[in-house]
Inverse folding.
C-alpha cells in the first residue's frame, strides 16, 4: 500500500509574508517553534486544527499551505 | 528546547543516578542475601528514593514556564502519549526479564528453590525508577525521530 504524503509550503509562505520568523508563526498559530521546525522539515504532519490555524495566519486556504500527494 | 525535552533529560539524569545508587547499595556488603539483615541499607535505599523524588519535583517546579509563551502543543502531547505507552512496555519487559533471570539463576543454575527476599525489594523499588527512566528515554528518542502523523 503506498504511503500517504503531505507536503507543506510553510517555509516559502513565511518568507512571502514579510520574512516571518518561526517563533512568530508559532506564537500566532498557538504551537511551539519546534513544531514549526519539524513541519518545515517534513518530520511532522499537523492535526487539522493546527493546519487551519497556520493557514489562517498566512491568510491562505488549506490547499495553499498543504498538499496531499 | 521544549519543556518536554528539558524535563526528560533531567528526569533521565536524576533517576539514572538514583538507580546507580540503588545498585551500589543493594549489591554491596553481601548483596541480596544480606540486604534485609540490617536497617542501614534499607534506610539508604529509602533515602535515595526520597532524595530522588524531592530533586525530581524541584526540577519540575524550576522548569515550569511563564504563561506568555506556548509551553506545550499537540506535537508534545503526541510524544508524551507515545512515550508513556513505550515506557510502560519497556517496564513490563524489564519485570519479565528480571523474573526470568531470577528463575534461571536460582532454579536452574543454582538448583535451589530458596531465593533471598531482598530481590523482591530490589525489583519493586527499581521498577519505580525504571518507569521514569524508560519514559524519559522514549521521550528523547521520539523527540528526535518523530516523523509520524498527528492524531487523526
Amino acid at each position: 500500500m503506498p504511503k500517504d504524503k503531505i507536503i507543506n509550503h510553510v517555509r516559502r509562505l513565511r518568507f512571502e509574508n514579510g520574512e516571518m520568523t518561526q517563533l512568530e508563526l508559532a506564537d500566532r498559530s498557538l504551537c511551539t517553534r519546534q513544531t514549526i521546525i519539524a513541519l518545515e522539515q517534513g518530520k511532522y504532519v499537523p492535526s487539522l486544527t493546527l493546519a487551519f490555524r497556520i493557514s489562517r495566519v498566512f491568510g491562505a486556504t488549506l490547499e495553499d499551505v498543504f498538499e496531499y500527494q | 528546547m521544549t519543556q518536554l525535552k528539558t524535563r526528560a533529560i533531567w528526569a533521565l539524569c536524576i533517576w539514572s543516578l538514583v538507580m546507580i545508587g540503588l545498585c551500589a547499595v543493594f549489591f554491596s556488603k553481601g548483596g541480596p542475601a544480606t540486604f534485609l539483615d540490617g536497617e542501614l541499607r534499607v534506610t539508604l535505599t529509602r533515602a535515595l528514593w526520597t532524595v530522588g523524588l524531592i530533586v525530581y519535583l524541584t526540577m519540575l517546579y524550576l522548569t515550569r514556564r511563564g504563561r506568555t509563551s506556548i509551553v506545550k502543543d499537540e506535537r508534545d502531547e503526541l510524544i508524551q502519549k507515545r512515550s508513556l505507552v513505550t515506557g510502560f512496555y519497556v517496564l513490563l519487559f524489564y519485570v519479565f526479564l528480571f523474573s526470568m533471570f531470577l528463575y534461571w539463576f536460582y532454579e536452574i543454575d543454582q538448583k535451589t528453590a530458596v531465593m533471598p527476599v531482598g530481590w523482591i525489594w530490589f525489583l519493586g523499588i527499581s521498577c519505580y525508577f525504571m518507569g521514569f527512566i524508560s519514559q524519559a528515554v522514549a521521550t528523547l528518542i521520539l523527540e528526535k525521530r518523530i516523523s509520524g502523523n498527528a492524531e487523526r
About this structure: The first strand of chain A starts at residue 6 and ends at 8. Chain A has five helices and two strands. The interface with chain B takes residues 26-27, 30-32, 34-35, 38, 42-47, 49-50 of chain A (CB under 8 Å). The helical segments of chain A are 10-16, 22-28, 33-40, 48-58, 62-65.
